[in-house]
Design a protein that fits this description.
α2 packs antiparallel against α10 (about 210-235), α5 runs antiparallel to α12 (about 280-300) and α12 (about 280-300) packs antiparallel against α13 (about 310-335). The protein is mainly alpha-helical and about 350 residues long. It is built from 13 helices and no strands. The chain has helices spanning about 1-15, 30-55, 55-60, 65-95, 95-110, 115-120, 125-155, 165-180, 185-200, 210-235, 245-275, 280-300, 310-335. The protein is globular. The longest helix has about 30 residues, at about 125-155.
Amino acid sequence: MITGVLFAVLAGLLLGLYALPEKFTKDFEFENTWSLFFAINTFVVPNIAAFLLIDGFADVLGAIPTNVLVGMVVSSILWGIGAMMWGKAINYIGLSLGFSIFIGTIILVGSLLPFIQVGLPKTNVLVTILMGLGVVLIGVIANGRAGIIRMNDEKTASYAINRGESVIKGILIAVAGGLLATGFSFANSYGAEIIDSASQAQGNAPWKSAIAVMYVIYMSGGVAIAVYFIQQLSAKKLWGKFKTPHLGKNIALTSIMGVFNFAASVVFAYAAFKLGKELGGSVGYAIFNTACVVTAIISGLITKEWFTASKRAKNSLYLGLICMVVGIIIIAYSNTLT
């Protein structure tokens, strides 16, 4: 159990840090950086990892029943669409509030979704998980509030709320995006056990099964993401931005982002496996996402993103961090109950 929790935290650390190299790209707009990252992250890295590290990978894929594969592909595409909807939501309600609503939906729904497949745990375990999720969500709300206070104080945030747009529309998009993004959790829970059996039948170590699971998820979700960015790059006429002397450096930086992001998901899948079928997808997913948010916020503090924020904003941020850490501990504790 402890191994699974530690791997879930490690996965969250990797995911919380993966975007840092984005700060050092040059001559790129947002769409250039993130389209290049997603191209590497969802298509290049999974293929290299799967075909280099997994023996008989083609046979592993061939052993996945059609209904399972279809279920994983569809839910992974929904995950990709959800991630893109979050990008749309921040245009209406700002980065902080959009992220808060989006990740809060993911943690709450994504952590409970696996119970549809494996059934509810014992009452004391379920109550403890729900208590932990409640504390985490209080932390997410506090973090969102901190971001909003900071934006209102500084009046210079690049994602400041556009008062002329519909805030309600932005909130609905963020919630819908979060719901769709939980397809990641469903796809992992739905196919993990079958893919693990197929992978180990080829003589692979158990941890390599996680790579095969993420291969299906990333390749499928990448299709929806690619369509979105092709449309955005064309609409905003940004294809020419790729012609820059810094292209090589930018590719290297986004490649680091891609490796970290994919590795985070693989480590999470392995953590879920170690935590067990009953609670791996729920407990592991909650710890994974919460650790990610905590890491991202702490890295922001270290890089002085909050240096000019008001005391009120910082206090709300610290309250959010404390709640999320306490929530993680409560959720992790649920895995020790019998």
